[in-house]
Design goal:
Elements (H helix, E strand, L loop, with lengths): L3 E6 L3 H11 L5 E7 L2 H11 L3 E5 L7 H11 L4 E6 L4 H10 L3 E4 L4 H29 L17 H14 L6 E3 L8 H4 L8 H4 L8 H5 L3 E2 L5 E3 L12
Parallel strand pairs: 1-2, 1-3, 3-4, 4-5, 6-8
Antiparallel strand pairs: 7-8
Helix pairs in contact: 2-3, 3-4
Length: about 240
């Protein structure tokens, strides 16, 4: 089992020992280091890469709030839990603004500390997971599916329409159906839509082709399929 890596930051050796004694009773935790002030905490956070930092807010030199802000800016994946003698909303707000994930008021009860560390670590794992999933979905490579028939009347348009509708509705994919039967394309008829623009007008656009420009020529059907129609008249095929 992968253990939760914890850095303890407090200018009081007695306080550090108390926290260590509580945490060492849990097999899920591993104390990777201790620091006596904010500056030392920043250095050890960079070197040890803990999952959780238990940070005292009142320390000489660089205080815990300042250290938290610098640490979380440098490494947004680390989770800081502020432990403070003060319970006022003002202190809580300062801690959260600095980037802390949780705020505990000292003296901390053992079970409260253990549950807080586990909860904060779990929440951070979920954030990372969702971030990775989102990035994968955003960077997914597009696929091009070509349907071709050697002669008319074999059902290629029917196949295209049904395939596009299935991908858009059932698979929740973003689908653009491009009708390249330039003289007799009738995909809009199958979707019961009337095109005002077509690929013939699109290729006449001057300047660099981009997504926004192409999107202006697409018809969005109720099935969420987007259609780029063939020219509305056979003679316009020569323009493409």
């Amino acid at each position: 089992m992968e253990k939760i890596q914890i850095l303890i930051v407090n200018d009081s050796e007695e306080a550090r020992n108390q926290l260590r004694n509580i945490l060492e009773e849990e097999q899920e935790f591993r104390i990777v280091g201790e620091a006596e002030n904010g500056e030392e905490a920043q250095n050890k956070a960079r070197r040890l890469l803990p999952d959780i930092i238990l940070m005292d807010d009142e320390m000489p030199g660089v205080d815990g709030i300042t250290a938290t802000e610098k640490i979380t800016l440098n490494d947004p994946l680390v989770s800081v839990i502020i432990i403070s003698m003060f319970s006022s909303p003002e202190y809580l707000k300062r801690a959260m603004t600095a980037g802390a994930r949780e705020y505990l008021v000292a003296p901390v009860v053992g079970q409260e500390l253990v549950e807080t560390v586990k909860r904060v670590n779990y929440a951070e794992k979920m954030r990372r997971h969702h971030s990775i999933v989102q990035k994968k979905s955003l960077t997914k490579e597009p696929q091009i599916i070509t349907v071709f028939g050697s002669k008319g009347g074999v059902g290629k348009t029917t196949l295209c329409v049904n395939l596009a509708a299935h991908l858009a509705y059932k698979e929740k994919a973003k689908v653009v159906l491009v009708d390249l039967d330039l003289q007799f394309g009738d995909i809009p008829v199958f979707f019961n839509v009337v095109p005002r623009k077509s690929i013939a007008e699109l290729v006449q656009e001057k300047g660099k082709m981009n997504f926004q420009l192409i999107n202006n020529y697409l018809i969005t059907h109720a099935s969420k399929v987007k259609i780029l129609p063939a020219p509305t008249k056979p003679e316009y095929a020569e323009l493409v």
